[in-house]
Design brief:
Largest sheet: 3 strands, mixed
Distance between the termini: 65 Å
Shape: globular
Number of strands: 5
Number of helices: 12
Strand order of the largest sheet: 3-5-4
Order of helices and strands: HEEHHEEEHHHHHHHHH
Bound molecules: zinc ion
Radius of gyration: 19 Å
Number of domains: 1
Oligomer: single chain
Structural class: mainly alpha
Strand content: 5-15%
Amino acid sequence: MSKILVVILTTLFILISCATSPLGRSQFKLMSDDELNGMGSEAFSQIKQKTRVEKSKRINRYVNCVADAVLLVSNSPIKNWEVVVFRDKSVNAFAVPGGKIGVHTGLLKITKKQDQLAAVLGHEVAHVLADHSNERVSQELALQQSMNVVQVLGNVQSPEGKQLMRLLGLGAEVGLILPYNRFHENEADEMGLYLMAKAGFDPRESIRLWENMGQGSGKQPSEFFSTHPAHETRIKRLNQNMNRAMQFYQKAKASGKNPRCRW
Ligand SMILES: [Zn+2]
């Protein structure tokens, strides 16, 4: 094959793989939704086997109440999201492709109100809606063709398996955080803010969450808290999007969206 042909084919391939994030950023994606959802679901079920699940009906009802309200306005093609509360003191929450959300009980001690939990869940759901895992896995696949994602799923304890878990945003679960990049974080923050507001949660509480966070985030690694931009930077950016978020919030209230999740 001539070099020119290779270049043309490669370019075509990359063009075909390019998509656009919900906020308009162009994305490089090699995996199909089905493949990625399968990987996320598999990884999630392995975490469920390894980690104690919180059985308290009261706590589960509360977390599901907040998550359901956020998911209802997410326009996600996945209809049956699974929300699991894990008994774990670390301040963490995560969401993986395939519609799986994990919330650690440690997070519930830090988020003082339903609106603050909604801020965290909105952010995590946004990572999934914007397909950030697909981008990370795709970049890794493009760099390292040897990684056979289907094979490594059978053994998440292998180095490749751990790498895959990290790419899915599950760093804390395997003891090593791979931060989402700055673009992913900004996007998840902005989308998450709008999501919580559209669900009828007060978006200003996201700022309060970050203000409280300085003292209480602990030392445990966590996708949401340890790997993210400095609190001040984040609060500044959230404030820049607050007017728009408040409009969504007022509209949600006017249309009767008034979540009352308690525990
Ligand atoms: Zn994040």
